[in-house]
């Protein structure tokens, strides 16, 4: 055990001397066209804070699910309840789980009921090519709910016929099994995934049973490709203390989330047109006491049907991007009632280039109509200037917003009342940053500011009153993001180290009320580093160190590690999480598990 601690600490202290990234990540980022935009731009040409988790980074992450993977990026605050991402909330730069948007291949998969369901649609890692993280307001690009940022999961494209079978087993009676198949034909390609993940739970009533199914097909590849995406996830889990108070030990929840999307890309001369159709469904059943199904029970079913067309035109004046997004939302709930909402958004932006393309200026605006919140317009502008082939400075400013969820508007229980007269939250945000890139080293730093108004808080005047949702909070958030990466060789093998750090300072405006439920508990200091090494063929290892200090004063450090060995068509893995048994919570006083391990075996063939 002492030798393990020594090697771990040695790996952590080495970050003082080198900064690294995943093998070949620099080359990949140069080639990547960032798809989380109305205008298709190479990664290096964007004038926003965008961080990309590459396929190599995913493999080296020692993570088995998207929630754990995103925790390795400073500024992304994943607050988990339990293991394997069964219930996790997504925050970026101090925003709430309702203020961050998740997309899959550009399809917005937000849930009108509550942001608690955002991560229900997080796909299995095996089908993900990369993840694009947009930090900062993105309402101008995506519309509402990209209040503090957005995350776009980009799925894999099939390039060869293969099959892989994988299984994992470990602590807490955990057992995972997955099958992945890819088929490449003359005029079509297909990816199929099925998996089942189960656990007895790391403490009382935290067992889970998770099933995932995924299909991605491309038809008519030789002419105009048509892409079909279909995903389904079912999660049944004990929710000991997940919601309400920690004393609510018998809570239970079942969710079913599905997504079907059709898309294509039409390119003709200087025009690029990208239409898509999609349908997202989420069903959530919650029991306050799983042993008493006839007691307090909530059942919500949300359907979102949408159509979106994005287009861009390249001329001597630059690139113009525009689009329209129309979606209809239906909610059926025994608590929130039956609700409908029509959403329509028009987007327009144009990138001007000056001084031999060294200066780019991209103004834009999103204009949105809601059947229950009427018209809203949110403009912004991005600017960037290349000081040299290696250095670029950039800045952006814009308005952002989110409309209340149906939970904010209509939820009621014995202690809480929603408020159907709520207004949208809004903010003005600014950012300035610098980026550096070279063959083996890249780094970026950004300072940002966000002034938020009309934030929704649950307040009351007297102790015996009910908590009621109210637009009453004002909040100023300042911060710094730093990313640094560097590759280096030992012998013939590439070693890599990735380091990220975020600092947040929240200033909450005082309320003239005695009782407020709103709790700002951001990651004031968030530092993450990952060292991936390889000294012999077919054997690699990674160590991940995470340090967090929250606004309310709690601090903790967590260390994870993994080893991967490949022998012909077999791949063996060993993952150890929280190896020093740190005691900590991420949300709602739910204790996270202490040290645990997972052994894996994967077999692939063509």
> Overall mean pLDDT score?
89
Characterize the biggest β-sheet: 22 strands, antiparallel, barrel
Number of strands: 35
- Estimated structural class: mainly beta
> What would the principal axes of the Cα set say about the shape?
globular
Say which CATH homologous superfamily is assigned.
TonB-dependent receptor, beta-barrel domain
Structure description:
It is a single chain. Helices cover 6% and strands 59% of the residues. With 606 residues, it is mainly beta. The chain has a single domain (2-605), classed as Beta Barrel (Maltoporin, Chain A), CATH 2.40.170.20. The strands form 4 sheets. It has a 22-stranded antiparallel β-barrel. Strands 3-8-9-6-7 form a 5-stranded mixed sheet. A hairpin with a 3-residue loop joins strand 26 and strand 27. The longest helix is centred in the first third of the chain and has 12 residues, at 2-13. The two termini are 41 Å apart.
């Amino acid at each position: 055990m002492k030798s393990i601690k020594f090697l771990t600490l040695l790996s952590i202290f080495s970050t003082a001397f080198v900064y690294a990234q995943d093998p070949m990540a620099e080359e990949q980022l140069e080639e990547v066209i960032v798809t989380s935009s109305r205008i298709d731009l190479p990664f290096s040409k964007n004038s926003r804070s965008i961080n990309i988790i590459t396929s190599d980074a995913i493999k080296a992450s020692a993570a088995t699910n998207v929630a754990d993977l995103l925790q390795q990026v400073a500024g992304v605050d994943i607050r988990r309840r339990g293991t394997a991402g069964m219930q996790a909330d997504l925050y970026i730069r101090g925003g709430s789980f309702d203020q961050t948007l998740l997309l899959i291949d550009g399809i917005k998969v937000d849930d009108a009921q509550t942001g608690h369901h955002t991560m229900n649609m997080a796909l299995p890692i095996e089908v993900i090519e990369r993840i694009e993280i947009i930090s900062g307001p993105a309402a101008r690009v995506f519309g509402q709910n990209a209040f503090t940022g957005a995350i776009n999961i980009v799925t894999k494209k099939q390039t060869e016929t293969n099959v892989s079978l994988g299984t994992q087993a470990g602590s807490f009676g955990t057992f995972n099994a997955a099958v992945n198949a890819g088929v490449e034909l003359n005029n079509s390609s297909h990816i199929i995934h099925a998996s089942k993940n189960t656990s007895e739970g790391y403490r009382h009533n935290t067992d889970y049973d998770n099933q995932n199914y995924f299909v991605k097909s491309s038809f008519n590849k030789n002419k105009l490709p048509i892409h079909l995406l279909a995903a389904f996830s079912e999660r049944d889990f004990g929710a000991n203390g997940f919601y309400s108070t920690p004393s609510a030990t018998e809570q239970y929840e079942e969710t079913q989330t599905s997504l079907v999307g059709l898309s294509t890309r039409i390119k003709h001369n200087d025009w690029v047109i990208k239409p898509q159709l999609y349908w997202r469904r989420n069903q959530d059943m919650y029991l306050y006491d799983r042993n008493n199904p006839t007691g307090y029970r909530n059942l919500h079913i949300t359907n979102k049907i949408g159509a979106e067309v994005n287009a861009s035109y390249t001329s001597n004046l630059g690139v113009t991007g525009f689009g329209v997004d129309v979606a209809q939302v239906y909610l059926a709930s025994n608590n929130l009632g039956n609700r409908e909402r029509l959403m329509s958004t028009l987007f327009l932006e144009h990138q001007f280039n000056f001084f031999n393309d060294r200066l780019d200026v991209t103004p834009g605006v999103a204009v949105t109509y809601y059947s229950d919140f009427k018209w809203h317009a949110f403009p912004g502008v991005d600017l960037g200037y290349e000081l040299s082939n290696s250095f670029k400075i950039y800045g952006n400013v814009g308005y952002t917003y989110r409309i209340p969820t149906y939970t904010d508007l209509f939820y009621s229980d014995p202690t809480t009342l929603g408020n159907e007269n709520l207004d949208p939250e809004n903010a003005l945000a600014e950012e300035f940053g610098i980026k550096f890139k070279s063959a083996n080293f890249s780094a970026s730093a950004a300072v940002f500011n966000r002034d938020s108004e009309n934030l929704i808080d649950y307040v009351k005047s007297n102790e015996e009153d009910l908590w009621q949702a109210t637009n009453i909070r004002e909040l100023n958030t300042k911060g710094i993001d730093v990313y640094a990466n560097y590759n280096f060789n030992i012998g013939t093998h590439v070693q890599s180290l990735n380091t990220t750090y975020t600092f947040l300072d929240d200033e909450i405006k005082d309320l003239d009320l005695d009782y407020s439920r709103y709790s700002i508990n951001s990651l004031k200091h968030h530092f993450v580093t990952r060292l991936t090494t390889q000294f012999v063929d077919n054997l690699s290892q990674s160590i991940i160190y995470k340090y967090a200090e929250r606004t309310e004063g709690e601090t903790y450090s967590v260390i994870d590690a993994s080893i991967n060995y490949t022998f012909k068509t077999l791949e063996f893995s060993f993952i150890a999480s929280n190896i020093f048994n740190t005691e900590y919570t991420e949300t709602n006083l739910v204790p996270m598990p202490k040290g645990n391990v997972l052994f894996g075996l994967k077999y692939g063939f063509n």
